[in-house]
């Protein structure tokens, strides 16, 4: 049996073959999970995002016309759902119902207060979580996913020059955050 | 390559994502530009720190649970489509009603006040029942900046001059649900809301499709 490419799977789904959707899920579930986890740094939230992404994909698949690559489209949905999850979480935090979601308070997040108990890895994760959302998206797609700028440009609808600037500032901010924590220590 | 271009290529240089020509350009530039050398040193330090992060992988069994759960939720697809429609009408209706009330208010003698032109512009925007246009009108009139670049000013402008939390909610929802990914200072926006407004915003967000 030949392996269908992504577009063939979409066309097959549009002709009524539901199994093609299942194949798309199997093909991309790890990527979607990994990107989502990078955004939210939490398994349960990442799992929710994965579910939400594939529900959206299923609902929108019949309208997909191939203007962009399937994976570009899927990445874009993943980034959007991830960012929306973060935004909702911030509003929940703002409403001070954060104890239900086990999020640290602003005070306890200060690097000089907790550095002694924190490993470098956690520090980096925190630095990434604190990036502005666009910089975070660029950083994750470029540094971890190693996507070409051309693809990231299609996913985030941003110029390549803008992406490079975002990537530069994201890494600098991560470095500065880690430095501040080290100095405080 | 220009200095700016070199600066923004440094991370790709460090991670070896440049072709040979660009790599040589960056290397030569670094030998003669102290500013870029400083950037390079900072990025190298960050890169060293980043290497401490590892890919977080769930157990292999986890992936086998994804598809069945998606399929289960798709079983209720028709129901959810119906409920989406109900949510949309529940949100749009009060907005339309408040817009109509506002039109009536705007048509009071305040039309003849010194703020006549501004009110007129708002009236035009409100008439179309479009939160986008309302936000844009307020933004243009009071903040003089784009909606996405200065949300705090815009939301304050709406709060101060329209005194209608429907508009605040709609404006924020538009921004938060936007398909565009922006460097949004959401805490700054939230700081302009009271608890009730934030709760309304949250309930709107959780009940709406984003894409």
Your description of this structure?
The complex is a heterodimer of chains A (185) and B (211). Chain A is mainly α and 185 residues long. Chain A has 2 domains: 1-103, RNA polymerase sigma factor, region 2, helix turn helix motif (Rna Polymerase Sigma Factor, Chain: A), CATH 1.10.1740; 105-185, Winged helix-like DNA-binding domain superfamily/Winged helix DNA-binding domain (Arc Repressor Mutant, subunit A). Chain A contains 10 helices and no strands. Chain A has helices at 6-14, 19-40, 43-60, 70-94, 106-109, 111-114, 120-129, 133-144, 149-156, 160-184. In chain A, α4 packs across α9. Chain A is elongated and about 60 Å long. The N and C termini of chain A lie far apart (59 Å). Residues 97-109 of chain A have low confidence and may be disordered. Chain B has 211 residues and is mostly helical. Chain B folds into 2 domains: 3-50, no CATH class; 79-206, no CATH class. Chain B is extended. Chain B starts with a helix and ends in a 5-residue tail after the last helix. The model of chain B is unreliable at 107-155 and 157-165 (pLDDT under 50). Chains A and B meet through α2, α3, α4, α7 and α8 of A and α1, α3, α4, α10 and α11 of B.
